[in-house]
Design goal:
With about 375 residues, the protein is α+β, with helices and mostly antiparallel strands. The chain has two domains: about 240 residues, P-loop containing nucleotide triphosphate hydrolases (Rossmann fold, 3-Layer(aba) Sandwich); about 120 residues, no CATH class. The protein contains eight helices and 21 strands. α2 crosses α3, α2 runs parallel beside α4 and α3 packs across α4. The two termini are about 45 Å apart. Bound molecules: adenosine-5'-diphosphate (ADP) and magnesium ion. Magnesium ion binds next to α1.
Length: about 375
């Protein structure tokens, strides 16, 4: 099922008298989601992710804008007829019901012709349980399950109605690191197996990048960028997106363009043909630094951390906004840790320019 969000806006009225303090949770959001794909909706806490999901499933009514499933405008449809399965951020299972009863619950709540026969319900619940591999747990109660198992029950419960669309709101946030990794792979597998169009919400960029066919990055209710995870990483449209994706994060320096050359603290770094004179932010991905004796960027070496395959060179540079600069280079390279200075060359495709005020990307073709 293709999903189309068209200029979606959601405002919540202010608590204060006279309606002041109104919150715009989602602002003019337009997004196309292709049938059968898994989309990662990504952004910091409070950026409007949950509100977006709530509008898609019908729990919140948009202030303006439309929502389409395929050709059908579902904006005014009540939640129960939209065919959406949702796993909430705090997936609450019914504690007094067994796993099987929890999974059956949404079917038993169906009314009239939509309600399947008893036999059909049990068959579907069995299928959903098998899909998330919890068949052997069907008679247990939620408190007798691990966090990961509870999460799978919540997913089975969302799948049992055979939804057209599956919405997962930070489904892994209650799990420990190892289980998170395992469960996210399982969600990815289940999604591929069922082919249900899925929106996966997270504030964890690594999680979103690893399992999504497409990511959509939001900030303060506004869609910043959408695309294949690698494309967005390699071609961020602004400083916010560049900073939000990648661990360690991109290194950001105060810099300047003068006479079509990029300067860091008066030091020429690389040619920037066609870019007008102006102060800029320059972002360099950690993997974009190459240790080089006559390299144009000189940092003060702090320490070298072993990461196994790679090493992380931690240093400082007076023009670096965050204080520390992190370079990731192959551990096969000899690094002289006796020096207090470290000089780097920059890999042109890992260097991005941004407007100093707006943070918008400045297109350029660097020459070294
Ligand atoms: N029911 C509500 N009433 C008032 N403000 C709300 C309500 N729900 C969410 N908000 C506000 O809308 C913004 C977006 O919230 P939310 O969609 O929950 O963000 P996220 O899921 O990305 O953390 C926040 O500023 C939040 O405080
Ligand atoms: Mg949320």
């Amino acid at each position: 099922m293709d999903i189309k969000l068209q200029n979606l806006t959601k405002r919540f009225p202010g608590r204060r008298r006279g309606g002041s303090g109104e919150v715009t949770a989602v602002s003019d959001l337009s997004l196309q989601i292709q049938d059968g794909t898994l989309v990662g909706l990504l952004g910091p806490s409070g950026c409007g992710k949950t509100t977006t999901l709530n509008m898609i499933c019908g729990l919140e009514k948009p202030t303006s804008g439309r929502i389409f499933f395929g050709e059908e405008d579902v904006t005014d449809l009540p939640p129960e007829v939209r065919g959406v399965g949702m796993v909430f951020q705090n997936y609450a299972l019914y504690p007094h019901l067994t796993v099987l009863q929890n999974i059956l619950f949404p079917l038993e709540n169906l009314k009239g012709a939509a309600r399947p026969s008893r036999e059909e319900m049990r068959r579907r619940a069995g299928e959903a349980a098998a899909l998330v591999q919890i068949e052997s747990l069907r008679d247990r109660r939620p408190r007798e399950l691990s966090g990961g198992q509870q999460q799978r029950v919540a997913i089975a419960r969302a799948l049992v109605k055979m939804p057209r669309v599956l919405l997962l709101d930070e489904p892994l946030s209650n799990l420990d690191a190892r289980l998170r990794l395992q469960t996210r792979e399982e969600i990815c597998k289940i999604q591929k197996k069922t082919g249900i169009t899925t929106i996966f919400v997270t504030h964890d960029q690594e999680e979103a990048m690893s399992i999504s066919d497409c990511i959509a990055v939001m900030k303060e209710g506004v869609l910043m960028q959408q695309g294949h995870p690698q494309r967005v990483y390699d071609d961020p449209s602004n400083l916010f997106v560049a900073r939000f994706l990648g661990t360690p994060p991109i290194n950001v320096f105060e810099a300047e363009i003068r006479g079509q050359v990029l300067y860091l603290l008066g030091q020429p770094v690389m040619g920037a043909p066609g870019v007008p004179d102006q102060p800029v932010w320059v972002g360099v991905r950690p993997e974009g630094f190459t240790p080089k004796e006559d390299g144009p960027v000189t940092c003060d070496l702090d320490r070298v951390e072993a990461l196994g395959r790679d090493v992380s060179i931690v240093c400082t540079h007076p023009a670096c906004a965050a204080g520390t600069v992190r370079a990731i280079v192959s551990s096969a390279r000899e690094i002289n840790t006796d020096c207090s200075k470290m000089r780097f060359g920059l890999q042109p495709d890992k260097v991005f320019l941004f407007h100093r005020d707006s943070g918008a990307r400045i297109p350029f073709c660097p020459v070294s």
